[in-house]
Design goal:
By secondary structure, the protein is α/β, with parallel strands linked by helices. Helix content is about 35%, strand content about 15%. Helix 1 packs across helix 2 and helix 2 packs parallel to helix 3. It is globular, with a radius of gyration of 15 Å. The chain starts with 7 loop residues before the first strand and ends with a strand.
């Protein structure tokens, strides 16, 4: 996977890939559930996961029309990645913790400010699925396939900290 840059860190954000030649097509293949692409991205992420420490729970961004993760249906690319990453990090993959209250416009179709406005208070923690063993300071890792404006991950962070006030959150 020569088109993927090494894992980069900026504060609590980890970036696996940048728009290098050919990478945009690779990302679209991942989003389109292309099995070879999913395997390549998962393998690369897991191989670099030693740089991500002290994570208890992994959640994923929900698709623009998803209201909650449905792990009973065919898993999507982020579910596959999240499960493998959870094993590597000795964490719990917990996409069921998140709910979304409305369909969102795809981020590619709106400006940064429009995206931040539309996702505001769209996410919440599922009260029926909250972590039973409330740790003093659980650490979450949010995974998403594309990081553009940061609006989605900012909103998920807000929802997590509304329930788990002292939670550590990495993206």
């Amino acid at each position: 996977m020569s088109r993927v840059s090494p894992l980069q860190r900026n504060a609590n954000h980890f970036f696996l890939g940048y728009y290098l030649p050919g990478l945009k097509e690779e990302i679209w293949q991942f989003k389109d559930q292309s099995n070879p692409s999913i395997m390549r991205w998962t393998e690369k992420t897991v191989s670099l996961s030693a740089a991500i420490i002290n994570i208890n729970y992994i959640v994923r961004a929900l698709g623009h029309a998803e209201f909650k993760a449905n792990l009973k249906s065919a898993p999507n690319a982020l579910d596959h990645l999240g499960k493998k990453l959870a094993v590597s990090l000795d964490a719990e993959y917990a996409p069921h913790l998140l709910n979304k209250n409305r369909v969102l416009v795809k981020s590619a179709k709106c400006t940064r400010n429009e995206r931040h406005t539309q996702v505001y208070k769209a996410y919440s923690i599922n009260a029926d699925e909250q972590i039973i063993d409330l740790q003093q300071q659980p650490n979450f890792l949010i995974i998403d396939d594309v990081f553009t404006s940061g609006a989605t991950t900012d909103e998920i962070t807000r929802a997590i900290r509304q329930v788990y006030k002292d939670a550590g959150v990495s993206v």
